[in-house]
Amino acid sequence: MTNQKKASSEIRSELESELFAIVNTIISLNQKYQSGNLKENFFQRSIKSAMNDLLKINLSLNKNDIELSKFLANMNITDDYYEAIDIINKMSSLNISTNQFSKSTSSSILEIPRLTSEITSSFITVMDALKLETFNNYEIIFDLIKDLKKNFDRFPGLELSKIKLAKIYQEFLRNGEKIVTHQKHRNSVSDDLYVVFNEFKEKLNL
Fold first, then answer.
1. Measuring CA to CA, how many Å separate 126 from each of 8, 38, 148, 194?
2. Which residue among 22, 50, 159, 182 is the one 20 to 30 A from 86 at the CA level?
3. Gap between the Cα atoms of 206 and 201, Å rounded
4. Which DSSP symbol is given to 203?
């Protein structure tokens, strides 16, 4: 076995162990809560923590080009995984105190690999378009930024980064035609996008 294959095998093994533990933790917590053996506040905090761990697993799978459905099938935990997702989604629908869970966040766990790829591609495309002096089609650039914002808003967490991107979007909405006709303004928007993109990459540990 080559060093690369050995490392890949070790990564898969580690992810399998982590995912198995997280899924079983969520199911076990729910069973104890339903039977009255856990207080609501503790249950909420524990599920939120487990959900964050589950999100990190999904990000790691995507980073290592591992398809979730096949990964679950190989582990023989497909049903348990989606039971855990269903528990999280039910928590969201209850609108539990202080809005600790959002329906979009929990459901988007299932979309993380595809969403990550789309957001990364959108960031790069928009920044490239802004840096290219000969490309001055306002409508196309605006559509690219709008699609980026729509997908980025669906990604769990990163609330401060979403605010930054919303400000960039609003600025382009107000002054887009002026921005695309001045390379200095285009570079400034591109630099602002790069800051948000780096925060996104840090979230994914890319």
1. 33, 48, 8, 10
2. 159
3. 5
4. H
